[in-house]
Specification:
Elements: E1 12-19, E2 23-24, H1 34-47, E3 58-62, H2 73-81, E4 89-92, H3 98-111, E5 117-125, E6 131-132, H4 135-146, H5 150-157, E7 168-169, H6 170-174, H7 184-194, H8 199-219, E8 229-230, E9 236-237, H9 249-252, E10 275-284, H10 286-292, E11 298-307, H11 316-327, E12 337-340, H12 345-356, H13 358-364, H14 385-388, H15 392-410, E13 414-421, E14 425-432
Length: 437
Amino acid sequence: MAYKKIDYTRPVYIVDGARTPFLKARGKPGPFKHADLAIQCARALIEKLPIEADVFDEVIFGAAMAGSDEANIARIIALRLGCSDKVPAYSVHRNCASGMQSLDNAAMSIADGRSDLVLAGGVEAMSRAPLLFSDAMVNWLAEFWGAKTFLQKVKVFGKIRPGYLTPVIALLNGLKDPVVGLNMGQTAEKIAWRFGIDREAMDRYSVQSHQRLASAHEAGVFDDEIIPMFDAKGRLYDHDEGVRADSSVEKLAKLRPAFDKPFGNITPGNSSQITDGAASLILASADAIEKYDLPILARIVTAQWAGLAPDEMGLGPAHAIAPLLRSRRLKAESIDVWEINEAFAAQVLAVVEALKDKQYCKNNIGLASPIGEIPMDRLNLHGGGISLGHPVGASGARIVLHLAKTMQAQKAKRGIASLCIGGGQGGAMLLQREDAS
């Protein structure tokens, strides 16, 4: 199958980026709302550069479940940052890829000549996902509020049932596919079975994720990426809270299945963590780079989006990576650094297997030959969603930012960031460094 090569009509550059520490959800609202997270990392990013907040042509942010008082979160971010009220802003939503979608939209705007300098990113405060009333409770409240007299209200009050008070957990609803009726963990179980990925392999990969993140923090890998934050009480947050340096296969083996009880293999230990976090990047045209004397972290070459069956959504990266590489006549070994979001250990391992499996590539992606194997020593070098968390709207921006930072540190030429998307989609973005050896 021939895939169309998609190029931006003007070069698009990542100037720099920053993110918050990823903060573990602890069963109650976290210390920061969506806008607080995004503003703190965006403000610190802007202060690093020779620009002011009012020079952006537009602001674009991704979020999957912004609060009811944060409609069009991007506009709130722009105004609170001090961007001119004449700077337009809009929000995007593509589930797990919302942050990457914001970058692709920003890149297309720059490539089309509509913008030269764009602030883009993603944010999610998953700990603040709302608890909702059931339809039965809402109907009861409507009837109660509609009662005109005291006696009518007493009559309606007598109709209430204890079950009406059971809350609807919006986060759980959001993690379940409404079309196929499976939650994300169940889809991970399915693809693990398809590719023969057992519990031990999942747990080994998860331990590796924690070890790599712990080592990266100790080595100062994130010093130029993570922005320390203070909450309203003056408490400092300066590191990812989910990392467990003492994680082991033996400890993870004790955890029970979370989604397919009692026989499944997906557990909280080999799944991404529920977290709060944000990532911001500044994208620019060559004209803006010259005008403001800005640095260049990497160039965004192109992005690729793909669809697949919702019940196997975890394989989305394979369906996006394959056409991206084929369209540019690249092989897996042509990519120096890989970032594939760790929704589940099984999902990342299944993507690696799918891309090197001849039958899968032929029957499901339409390729005459497999893409090839992604070397594990080039993939998620500093951990991922399993160890640092997966704030849904932010992860797509985070993996692109960290990919660019890693490529710069390693003087790498090419890198790909990719992630699966709830609902049965995949996204991938190709970065390149012009001055790489």
